[in-house]
Structures are given as C-alpha cells and as structure tokens.
Amino acid sequence: MSPKNVIFKKTCKDKSVGVFMGKRDFVDRVDSVDPVDGVVLIDPEALAGRKVFVTLSCIFRYGRDDMDVIGIAFRRELYLSTRQVYPPLQDREKGVHTKVQAKLLRKLGNNAYPFFFEFPDNLPCSVALQPGPHDAGKQCAVEFEIKAFSAESQDAKVRKRSTVKLMIRKVQYAPDMQGAPPSVETTKDFVMSDKPLHVKVTLDKELYYHGETIHAHVNITNNSNKNIKNVVVSVDQVATVVLYSNDSYIKCVDIEDSGDSVSAGATLQKVYKLLPLLANNRERRGIALDGKLKHEDTNLASSSIVKDGVLKEVLGIMVSYKVMVKLIIGGMMGSSEVGLEVPFTLMHPKPEAVRWRMSWCSRSSSAPT
User: Fold this and answer.
1) Neighbouring C-alpha atoms within 13 Å toward the C-beta of 93
2) How far apart are CA 49 and CA 40, in angstroms?
C-alpha cells in the first residue's frame, strides 16, 4: 500500500492538466471497493477554452502493443467511466467526497477540481504475468488507469501533449476468518500387492500471508510391496486466463526434492517446509504477479476471491495455489507416481492486522522473562 501523507501527482506536457491523488492502491473487500478520488489542477490559459475530462478504465492486455497487426489491438477494455471536471457540472463542494480532496483543494486553490469514481462489483484485481528477461513491451496484465485530458469535447481527438495518465491498483486483502486446515488423503492399490499404500497430506492452516512458511504434514503408510524412491513436495501457482481462452498456466514457485524413501512395509511422518517467494522466481516467465506500479516492487499474485454471482469470464486472470506431493514409486517396469493436491490461499494481511501483530510482538519481546 502507498505510505500515508504522500501525494501522487503528474502533469501533462503542455501543463494544461495535472492529477493529484492521495493513494494508488484501492482495496476490494469483496462486498465493497474503495472509491477512487483525486483532484485535477488546470491552467485556464493553457486550456484555451478546451474542456477537461477524467476517465477510470480497466484494461486487459494480452499482447504487447508492438504485436498489433492489421488494426487489431491485443487489448480489451473491460470498463470505462468518464467525468467532465471543467467546466464543472456541479458546485465544487458537492464534488468533494474525502478529506484528502478537501485538503488538496485548499492547498491548490481555485483552479483545482475534484473527481470521484466508484468501481462496479464485477471487475478483477490488478494482476500481471511476469515477462521473460529479454521480453520487450508491456506484459500480459489486468491494469487500471486514471487519465485526465483536455479536449473540445469528450469524443474529440485527444492530443498526447494534453493527456496525463496515472496507473492505479485494485488489490484484495485476506478475509478475517481462517478456513479449516485443508487435508487430502488417498489409498493406492497395486497389482501383485495384497495391501495398499496410504498417503495423507495436511497443511497447518488454509490461509497464508505472503512471506509465511507453509508446513505440509505428510503421513505415508506403505503396506504395499512397492518401494517409494523419493518424495517431492512443491507449491504450484495456477493462473487461468478466463477472458479469451480459459488457458491455465501452472508454475512451480517452490519445491523440496527431499530424496526421502519409504521401503515396503514402512511408514514416514514428516513436515516439509515451503516458502513461495517472487525473489526466487524473478527469471521465470509467465508467473502471475500482483499488479506492479512503476519503480515499485511487487510479489507473487494473491489468490483470487470472487464475489457470488460475478461471472468469472470477465475477471481476466484468476490465480490459485496448491501444494503438490508426488511419491515416486519404483517397479520392475519402471517408475510410477502417486500425487496429491492440497489447495490453499495466499494473500496479504489487512494493514490493521499487520500493525496489531507488530505491536503484539513488540510487547511480547519486552515482557519480563
């Protein structure tokens, strides 16, 4: 999230229009979304009688701009809303919805005008697929943008010198309640074996925050006559592009190739630790990331949480995570595999929860022993 008491501002080249905003991250709480608010500062002389408009748009980009062929753009506008801010269509006071707007208007003077947008409830959150090290141009992404421009009318041709754009993000935080710790088990029978192989995998919780270690409890009871040659535990990210193709991209974002073996008739109980981080996957093309603003770092994409009744087809890119446990089984005819998938949620904690945890840890560390 953007730090407090920071104002983001950007001005077009001909100085006719400037945008001022108190934040660039807007939280989707599933049942409601933070409204987008800001202030536009105009120069009446530079405008030369033109009007000023502000738009909020959501764009799904699935190809670089330089890939456009025969007039077909590899982008789709999911949402567009436009407001005329100058000349104002209502009193300035009626256009003020937040304290930040009021403070900016007092500071910037009479040539500043507020704008305000509300997100519809069916838009995706900001997410992007990481380009390769040598890829050029813009990445495949769901992006949000505030654009202010001056023109004779809303539909008139807009000059680049009279346009200013500011990227923003729509983000989600983890819900307040944890779900039940996920658990999956399976029993595998083999030909020429009287007894089966039983495997159970349990995570210590259902919801993890970015940067937290995942503990996968693996319990193997090998009553078969087969030998388990290796146990491989990984975290897979599944990014499904639901808008135009429904293609799924599965990327391993952390793995432990343990080398553990379980002979026939033996058991194994072990906790495997996994830590999915972008820092370990920066060269991996196609990994889904939370939307990135210029000059700011980001992280692996958070799990997608969808409001009931919203069509997934309009959400651009859906992201989910699972722990994969694979047992490599030895045999006379070659190796085979037994696999289990345990889904979980990976998200950011709410800022209030982060502050509470830091405060609690500080008090605990200073308490007498």
Assistant:
1) 0
2) 16
pTM of the full predicted structure? 0.80
> What's the pLDDT tens digit per position in 224-264?
888 999 999 999 999 887 766 667 889 999 999 988 999 99
pLDDT for 251 equals 93
Cα 130 → chain centroid = 12
pLDDT per residue as tens digits for the range 323-339: 999 999 887 666 788 99
C-alpha span between 214 and 256 (Å, rounded)? 12
Q: Pull the structure tokens for residue 308.
A: 């009931």
Q: Rg of the chain over CA atoms, in angstroms? A: 26
Sort strands 163-172 and 25-28 into parallel, antiparallel or unpaired. parallel
Which parts of the chain fold into alpha helices (H)? 44-47, 99-108, 351-366
The string of pLDDT tens digits covering residues 97-106 is 888 888 998 9
3-class SS shares of the chain: helix, strand, coil, % to 5:
10, 45, 45
**Closest-CA residue to 13 (of 181, 160, 185):** 160
Give pLDDT, residue 270: 95
- What's the order of all strands across the beta sheet hosting 228-241? 207-209, 336-347, 317-329, 228-241, 247-257
Phi then psi dihedrals of residue 258, to 5 deg: -70, -30
Q: Is 45 exposed, middle or buried (0-12, 13-18, 19+ CB in 10 A)?
A: exposed
What is the β-pairing status of strands 112-117 and 127-129?
Answer: unpaired
Pairing of strands 228-241, 317-329: antiparallel
Residue 12 near residue 20, CB atoms below 8 Å: no
> Which residues make beta-bridge pairs with 340?
325
Upstream peptide bond of 87 is cis (omega within 30 degrees of 0): yes
Q: Are strands 267-274 and 25-28 parallel, antiparallel or unpaired?
A: unpaired
Distance CA 133, CA 119 (A): 34
Band (356; pLDDT cuts 50, 70, 90)? very low
